[in-house]
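Shipment paperwork, digital attachment
Item: protein structure file
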Amino acid sequence: MPLRTYGRRAALGVLLAASWSAAPPPPPEPPRHSETILVREAGVLVERPASRPIDTLKRARRPGDFQLLLDGLPHEVVSIEAATAKDWEIVVYLDPELAPAGPLNDAVLLLAKRAERLSGLGTVELVIADPEPRVALAPSRDAAVWRAALAELAGTAGGRAASLPETRLLAAVRRQCDRLTAFASRSRSSRPRALFWVGALDLPISPAESNALTLATEPGRETVSPTPPIAAAFAEATQALAAYGWVTIPLAVRPPPPPPPPTERPPGGAALDRPDYNSTLGRGRPLSFPEDPKAKARRASADLRLDAALLPWLAPHHLLARATAGRVVQDELQFDDALASLGRRWWLWYRPPVPADGRLHRLAVSLDGKVSLGGKVGLDAKLSLSGDVTPDGNRLAAPAWVRGFPGGSS
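Attachment content:
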């Protein structure tokens, strides 16, 4: 969450008007005093609906049209501005301790294919947690350098062993989530920032874990005990990412699910047994239609989205994306959608709590009475079938939490 501080000068004292009469001379002017009043504002990054251009929205609305609630209490929105005014701070975070080798390399190759678009948004930094997070590529806008680094990494990034005992795997999840939490909260930034995260694929997540991950952003759920261990580890990392302003885009690159088997025609009934309409035109040849590659790719991407809601091991990815107004990416089309969504972000600047307390606060932003989607999973949240949060109509996608920074730093 970025913060900005500026001063307002206030003049104190009274300035006596000069006398225009000839006598006697006016008394000396009393001294003027001034003091600077520091005004602190915090910014939260939200995603506008794709159908509402930012310039149109800014012309039609004022900051007062937005309602921002922290723990249910209103705070004044003082200004709005497009996030595209500044370059993005992008981090690609690879975790070979949690991601199997195959999906990890698939994600690396996809990132390399989109190097130009990534670099066009801002600086890109590569971090590898093996197991401690280390900078493998310093922030750069050079797409060629970025592509070469990923090409060198492909096939050599390692990956989680296919068969780890459950106790060792659970310990690894806790450690790596702690490291992700520490990385996410290492600093604040005045720039919009996104984290492309590759890790925790194919974890053996039970139905109880999946349910806890799905409901982790619901108000009051963070105090429910006991929480399954994997859900607890990811919930803490998610809170840190949301509170420090990271838009999280988990990559779970995988092939589309196989199409369902063709249904056999049920027997019986004269209508069902009749020849197909115009079947004689084929003269024994089946009718065929040209396959549009783009349409085929869109259909495969839609199949992935539909299938994703049924896979418990994707629950951590949906939690990270939902609570930070991000996206889960499973293929190239979804990756392009996620990049496009970054161009629809804008800042809402508001007055943070005084005094600052350093605690997590639940965030809700509304426009025209439509509450933001970051912390909701009910039907009113307009979740996509894959579990992602997508702005719709006047709804905004916003993080589920912000942090009140302690002392003089807020």
